[in-house]
Every structure is written in structure tokens, then in C-alpha cells.
Design a protein that fits this description.
MetI-like fold; membrane; Sugar ABC transporter permease; about 290 residues
């Protein structure tokens, strides 16, 4: 009996040791991965408090003397506030339109059965294979004919069209997991289809709406290529296009560039902090039947 107990204890110790080593390795890898993201952000913010000469001479040194001159110049010399407003208007409008039209389309595809439904799904998946660069020329010609070049709509409409497919597929996958009994209960209570969408499906689908909104916002907010082509005038120029202007016009002022990049990241961080708890839930549950 005694040797058997001793052998079992040895096995348990070996399993516990392997578990601790495996867990420590996982934490080490995750910490190293986190540092590759956190440190560049810290490096940018840290250098934003230095003058350009100090950034060039010692970019990895800590800015002990905090100087806000770069942030002042960002608003005075390059009018970053106007570009902020432009980006928020265009990206925010894109998110709103994508959620409205994408949500309605996802609701129809996930809860209705009709002829051609599989063909629509195939078409949506096929559009994901078309690169954005292939659509630039026809989209630009269409914007010229409708006089929307260098206007807010000149970037809102292309971004909305480009992000609709992703939003529809993700939201349709999530809505298809909602129990059928909720629809039946709503019908019994006298709700029509639109009321059912706004009062039942939208509240339940908040996680996937949040997930889609953050991705759509990021893609629209960071789209430098479309901004250069469709809205290249100063009065409607988004903030990502302004960063390129800084690098060419104030190429040696690295402190100003670091401050502008730090200001560019702030809206993304704020939005992510507010809806981060919904993102993982929306993406994982939306992938069950999508």
C-alpha cells in the first residue's frame, strides 16, 4: 500500500510541476507579446514631450522634463483640431451607416428563408476577395460625377460600402444564434418586424454591434490610401492624411510628429475602453453559426 501511495504522489508532483512550467511559459509569452505593443506606444508618448533635437540624440531616454510645446504646436501650426473633427465626422458617420444598413441586412439574412439566400451569402463572401485597390478608379469616377470628391460624403460612402460585407456576415452569424422563441413571443405581443428588430434583436445583439463598430471605426479612421485620393483638400483632410503632411512639411520635427501620433491614437483608445467588454463576446458567439 505504501509504495502505491508514494507513486501516486510522485505522479501528482510531476503533473503539478509540468503545469507550473507550462503556465509560467504561457505568461512569459503573453507578457513579451504585450510589451511589443505597449512599448512602442510608450516610446511615442515619451518622445512627444521632447524637442526634435532630443528625440534625435536620445530617443530611448525618459523625458523627465515634461514639455507641452509639441502639443501646442500641433494645434497652432498644423491645425490638428480641424483634422480631428473631420476624422470623427467621417469615421463616426461610416460606423452609423454600417450598423444601420448592415444590421437590417443581417436581420433579414439570419431570420428569413427566401429564394436566393445562399446566392447572396456566396456573393458577400466573394466580395471579400476583391482588393480595395481594384475599385479605386470606378469609385473615383462615380464620386466625380456626383460632385462628392473633397467632401465628407466622398469618404463616408466608399468606407460604408467597403465595410458593409464584413459587418453583415458577422452580425448575421450572431443573430442566427438568437432563439426562435423570442420571435414567437414578440409576435404574440403584437410586435411587427421592425419593432422586433429595434426592441428585441438590437438589444440582444449589442456585443456584435460593438465588435463591428470598433473594427469599422479603425478601418475607416486609419485608411490613408482612400483619404489621399478622395479627400485631399485641407478643409476635409482627416487626421491620418495630416500625419503624412507633417512628415513632408516638418520632416525634421520628430517631437511634433510624436505628439500628432499620440493625439491620433487617443480616440481609438477611448472608444476601445468603452466597448472592449463586448468585443470578444460578439466575435466568438457570432462565429458559432456564421
Amino acid at each position: 500500500m505504501q509504495p502505491t501511495i508514494s507513486a501516486e504522489r510522485n505522479v501528482q508532483r510531476g503533473e503539478f510541476r509540468r503545469f507550473r512550467i507550462g503556465k509560467a511559459l504561457i505568461y512569459f509569452v503573453l507578457s513579451a507579446w504585450a510589451m511589443t505593443t505597449i512599448y512602442p506606444l510608450f516610446w511615442i508618448v515619451n518622445n512627444s514631450f521632447k524637442v526634435s533635437r532630443d528625440v534625435m540624440n536620445n530617443s530611448f531616454g525618459i523625458a523627465w522634463n515634461v514639455d507641452l510645446v509639441n502639443y501646442t504646436n500641433a494645434f497652432d501650426r498644423i491645425n490638428i483640431g480641424k483634422s480631428y473633427i473631420n476624422s470623427l465626422i467621417m469615421s463616426g458617420s461610416t460606423v452609423l451607416l454600417v450598423l444601420i444598413f448592415g444590421g437590417l441586412a443581417a436581420y433579414v439574412l439570419s431570420r428569413f428563408t427566401f429564394a436566393g439566400k445562399r446566392a447572396i451569402y456566396s456573393l458577400l463572401y466573394a466580395t471579400l476577395l476583391i482588393p480595395t485597390f481594384a475599385t479605386v478608379v470606378p469609385v473615383y469616377e462615380l464620386l466625380i460625377k456626383t460632385t462628392m470628391v473633397n467632401t465628407y460624403w466622398g469618404l463616408i460612402f466608399p468606407h460604408t460600402a467597403g465595410n458593409l460585407t464584413f459587418a453583415i456576415l458577422v452580425m448575421a452569424g450572431y443573430m442566427s444564434t438568437i432563439p426562435k422563441e423570442l420571435e414567437e413571443a414578440s409576435f404574440i405581443d403584437g410586435a411587427n418586424r421592425m419593432q422586433m428588430f429595434t426592441k428585441v434583436f438590437m438589444p440582444i445583439s449589442r456585443p456584435v454591434f460593438a465588435s463591428a463598430s470598433i473594427f469599422v471605426f479603425l478601418w475607416s479612421y486609419n485608411d490613408l490610401f482612400s483619404a489621399f485620393i478622395f479627400v485631399n483638400k485641407e478643409n476635409v483632410r482627416p487626421i491620418v492624411a495630416l500625419l503624412n503632411e507633417i512628415s513632408s512639411q516638418y520632416g525634421t520635427d520628430f517631437g511634433l510628429m510624436a505628439a500628432a501620433v499620440s493625439l491620433t491614437v487617443i480616440p481609438v483608445l477611448i472608444i476601445y475602453l468603452f466597448i472592449s467588454k463586448f468585443i470578444q463576446k460578439g466575435l466568438t458567439e457570432g462565429a458559432v453559426k456564421g
